[in-house]
């Protein structure tokens, strides 16, 4: 194998950010979340040019599963001709599906829609439902600015104006994208809020709190579908996979207001409301205390299950756990990675399928003992022990086929990289300029301990196997689990699978259940199985 | 089963918002010792949660209010109404009226007439709900009970037979 000259590259490491108010947050009693019985489901249509400006939209206001109002709204600059088509449509209201009860619909201006939106979403605190919420809500905004504080890096959308400027007595909506499926969303504080606005969600006393600001209940179905399935869904596919009765329809031309197009939009809102019901039904099968509006990913649901089982984060268990150790471990974290060693050359391959890779590794390393441990201790400066272990592996790599070896890999090693094959996070792609993880021959600038980086022991083992030599180890620590948390509780996964965190390995239960699912033919529908 | 009479509410969204806000003001799952749970009938920030009726009883005051059936701006006519119903049913129903009809600031006779009709409808609904709905529920429960005890057509051979639909149409 030929080695090229190393290319200088800036690398990044993860850090453990110390939380300023962590102690306060730990003790803060969590209020019970109760899902509002009303939801405002909306969808917008836009022009097809690059501005993608709003043309019209519609919304349904649903209380306790029953439609109480459906309205259309239109943009301020909609041409008169299009406006007439909308007026005609509401003058002769027709239901979008044959079996729905006939009801009137009204045509609102954008401001009238936003007035209703303010009352329902902010004052009444109903669920605001959309598929790809950030796009739709940005269509009805009249202005945006750069968001600040927790939404820094995102947008602040101004929806309400007064005499041409932002209405300070109305909140803005901040949106910060995490990725294509997820975004943080929230109302900002408005000036001179009413006393009712300052009553915290779930308050049993009704007492306003000075520092409370209601952030909204924005439910993006795209995010919720992702959190429930770990799949990135289109609206159409989500309707299909969750068995929505009146799914998405198609229209030949977008952007032009026609009676067909209006009906298409109304039908989309109906499909969105039905999808919301299906997704919430699915969500309710999980016995967890997590607001569905805060379920951003499968990890959110996973963490909620850990809380449900009485498993606390390490700093809640051991407040004096050394934060430097957490920092070292965090900097050694690289998550998952994919690699292609030979690109763009057709070669014969052997298809090797790992079932539930992350959870399998967690189970084989017996990491559940750490998750449920009453106490975790750190054996510091054990570099000699690690060095002799790695040395043994060079002469006898078959040790890695022994199960016990895997459970002993729970250590972190500080290495001065000198051509070792180790993961690093850099901007490898000049075009995308994203931070990406790659496994390369890594060199430090100088042979100096200040250049040393922390890696998990399995990553170092991989390098030793590939190169057949030991890295320059500066320091190492090992973690050990002691006892079990006192208040561990059993729970049922998706209301079906029993898990006892005291006696079972949660990771193993999940893997086995996934396998069993393929063979189950009893109470589970084909739609659910497919998902 | 409850009887519901469907009247078109002009703004059901606003009605829901009012109810949600009232519920928040008194706190989650708020309930008076007497069993009253309607948020509008409960006193915000009372500890323990108490309804207006219980408060008045404790203070030795009347538990009846004089409700302006047609709205104060339209007519001085009042009807004595239990305070909790006044707050949680009849006043709430009036919030659904058009603001001009409710407040009638210029004293329009037509708006006053509209208010009288609206008030009459609201009060009739209230009376039906309070006065008749329970009778319907009771009759249906009694029929089910008798059918179980005495069998189908339990009324044959009793004095109640004369009220059977077939007998009435003879």
Characterize this entry briefly.
The complex is a heterodimer of chains A (531) and B (170). With 531 residues, chain A is of the alpha+beta class. Chain A is 31% helix and 22% strand.
What does this protein look like?
The complex is a heterodimer of chains A (531) and B (170). In chain A, the strands form six sheets. Chain A has a six-stranded mixed β-sheet. The two termini of chain A are 44 Å apart. Chain A has 531 residues and is an alpha+beta fold. Helices cover 31% and strands 22% of the residues of chain A. Chain A has 17 helices and 21 strands. With 170 residues, chain B is mainly alpha-helical. Chain B has one domain (12-169). Helices cover 51% and strands 6% of the residues of chain B. Chain B has a two-stranded antiparallel ribbon. The longest helix of chain B has 42 residues, at 109-150. The radius of gyration of chain B is 21 Å and the shape is extended. The chains are: A alpha+beta (531), B mainly alpha (170).
Radius of gyration of chain A: 27 Å
Give the uncertain stretches of chain B in residue-range form: none
Strand segment tally of chain A: 21
- What is the β-strand count of chain B? 2
**What oligomeric state do the depicted chains represent?**
heterodimer
Main β-sheet of chain A, in a few words? 6 strands, mixed
Q: Sheet with the most strands of chain B?
A: 2 strands, antiparallel
Strand order of the largest sheet of chain B: 1-2
Using only CA atoms, what is the Rg of chain B? 21 Å
Strand content of chain A: 15-25%
Considering DSSP H and I runs of 4 or more, what fraction of the residues of chain B is helical? 40-55%
Q: Tally the helices of chain A.
A: 17
Tally of separate helices of chain B: 6
Q: CATH topology of the domain at 33-151 and 219-294 in chain A, anyone?
A: Nucleotidyltransferase, domain 5
Using the 3D structure, state the CATH architecture of the domain at 33-151 and 219-294 in chain A. Answer: 2-Layer Sandwich
Q: What is the CA–CA distance across the termini of chain B?
A: 31 Å
The secondary-structure element order of chain B is HHEEHHHH
Largest interface: A-B, 23 and 17 residues
